Amino acid sequence: MVVRRPSGAVLLAIKTFYPRGAYRLPTGGIHRGEAILDALLRETHEETGLRTEVRRFLSRIAYHSLEAPTSTPLFHSFAFLL
Fold first, then answer.
1. 1 burial via Cβ count (<10 Å: 0-12, 13-18, 19+)
2. pTM value?
């Protein structure tokens, strides 16, 4: 999720197990049977405490095994501007 604040700043997160100074975009998971947009809004609230609305879809990233790069993706990530 890419959360743009009214000031234009993009919200970033840290994890205690990441190296000092490492930042990332907030992320989340989709529960079985959950719609992507429902998961996005739920995870945004869980990760940031913010209630947001989807402004637009940005990208879908498919992750493949290095041993089988043309196989079915292991999983996907979806990016939305909020």
1. buried
2. 0.75
10-residue averages of pLDDT along the chain (82 residues): 90 89 90 94 91 93 90 91 92
Identify the domain containing residue 38 by its residue range.
Answer: 1-82
Radius of gyration of the chain (CA): 14
| Domain count of the fold of the chain | 1
CA distances from 62 to 18, 28, 41, 48, 72 (A): 23, 16, 21, 25, 9
What CATH number is given to the structural domain containing 25? 3.90.79.10
With beta carbons less than 8 A apart as the criterion, state whether 37 and 44 touch: no
Q: Where are the beta strands (DSSP E) in 1-82?
A: 56-63, 75-81
